[in-house]
Amino acid sequence: MKRRIPKFFLTDTGKIVVLAALICLLAIAGFMLGQLVYAYMLRADAISTAESWAESLERGVDDLPAILAGAKPSESSRRILSITSQVGDVYRCRIWNRSGQMIFKSERMPSASSAATLFDLRGSANARAILSGLEVTVSNAGDRSSNPQFYVVSFIPIRQGTSIAGAFEIYLDQTADKTIYERSCLITESLIAIAVLLAGGIPACLAYRTMIEHRAARAEALHLAEHDTLTGLANRTLLEERAAIALARAGREKGQVAAFMIDLDRFKEVNDAFGRSAGDSVIKELAQRLKYTIRTNDLAARIGGDEFVVLQEGVIQPGGAGELAERLQKVLSQPYQFGAMEIHCDVSIGIAVAPSDAADLDTLLTCADAAMYQVKADGRCGLRFFQSGMDAILRDRRRIEIDIRRALDAGLFQLAFQPLLECRGNRLIGFEALLRWPEGWAPQSPATFIPVAEESGLIVPLGMWVLETACSAAAAWKQPLRLAVNLSPVQFRHGDLVDAVEHALQVSGLEPHRLELEVTESIWMQNTDAVLDQLARLRKLGISIVLDDFGTGYSSLSYLWRFPFDKVKIDRSFVTDMQTEPKAAAIVKSVVALARTLHLSVTAEGVETRSQADRLVEAGCDQVQGFLFGRPLTSAQTIRLIDSELGEREKAPDYESIGAADVPAAL
User: Fold this and answer.
1) Number of structural domains, the chain?
2) Is 495 or 602 the better-scoring residue by pLDDT?
3) C-alpha span between 26 and 14 (Å, rounded)
4) Tens of pLDDT, residues 238-266
5) Domain match, 261 and 318 both
6) Do 354 and 420 fall within a single domain?
7) For residue 543, what are the CA distances in angstroms to 503, 515, 517, 598, 664?
8) Do residues 430 and 551 both lie within one domain?
């Protein structure tokens, strides 16, 4: 307790209390001082009046010594003595002789006292003191019958030479004086109080205001330290604090804690298509929906750009987590309003439960993250509980991302070139550039590492490398064959794709009309106007635009007439099934007929048998590529093929394989 008191006075509240106490003490002291001054002034005034009255009486009554000796006063003296109590403040007077006997009395108000001697009236001690020459003044409150409301009794000694001959007992009415002094004192005390309040109150108010501002600043700093500035949700700091408490409580009470990792699907496309303000609006709206959906004792936190975490405790698992996840999936996948637009964003949710999946927050979030990435791998827009082995998938993905960065920095990626031939005559007309994993590393299919590059954003520098490298290789060919390069939808989001292509053409010296850029139907999931604008600018450069994997996406027909593509490529799935599935063959014929109507050339990919090639010729297909006509070649093999002009033969030889799967890089 002794230690707490000094600490309290060091706080802002303690300082305010001390300052307020000092102000109160000053006010009380001022009031008491005023009372003392006012009482002193009344007393001094009474003594002065009594002394003046006694002195004038001694001068006016010539036979006063005789009267004190026992003689009767003369008529003039009696008249003077009688009128002394009828004017001014004196309303009663008595004259006592040296023996304490009353020898004269004059009063305006009748006295209730019947004492004959001073000793009877004042007591022996007081009487002896008065008769010894001591001036005594006593203030009293009257009873209104025999005395005024406030009066003073003064005993003034009567001196004859050096001896005391008696004493005057003078009653003064000070009711009016008291009222005047009280008012004066009240005004003085009020002025003092005002001065004290101004001197101490203003600094106190300023100090209190400063204290409030400091408290508000500390509260705001604490809030900012524990909450996300955009959404107001908890940040990782507060998440870790609350999770530690929840996990400890669950350990004591044998309970469970569920962690939800929530990620917006294709949120980068929203930012790129509609701007950062639209993205921020979606994030803030999602945060509000989270707050309204979870319970008050659950916690929602934002730990990344579009990554959110929900902690759920006090519920039987996994049933409670499953119900909440389904509710979150439904609520968070509703359209988001931004101005007059509706933005559609789905969410992927991964769930991990402690202590069965993990005992600490970091591991629990890792497990939930792994489950969430499994949802994305399965096609996004779903929910999954963590299962053993999912963390290995996440680790593999992160390792692949690290390897992509390492390979980019060291320039270890490789390109392969797959021949592209005319259907009639098998004449070599160009190559498609395919991205390959660094040689000597653990093999990775483009179907594995390209999605990782897209999700991490590394596809942009990787795509730039492919463009520049492929264009430089094609510029060195002795024949002006065409070069096809795949583009990723991610490359369109940054808005600088046209500049990147122009730079690649400028650096390599490749003629623009020899370059074909292949895009998939997934680009229409972005800002369509921005995509069409970039495609139009590329086509204006003389570059051909090819719609790849035609028929496997959506909205293809609606955009074929909006943008004048130069070519469509029939997906390998239709080519593979057209021999056994009549519907696939019908689709191929329909695509070729549509292309003829729109004045587009048609390329079929994935041709592996002569029967497939014959059917494509019958359908009217213009160009083909696949293992039947040549596997992907290294740059050196490509140059040898072009130099030997093997493309003029009816059937190309079995080109040397470079040992890689025929999966085009989605670049």
Assistant:
1) 3
2) 602
3) 18
4) 889 999 999 999 888 888 999 999 998 87
5) yes
6) no
7) 14, 6, 7, 18, 20
8) yes
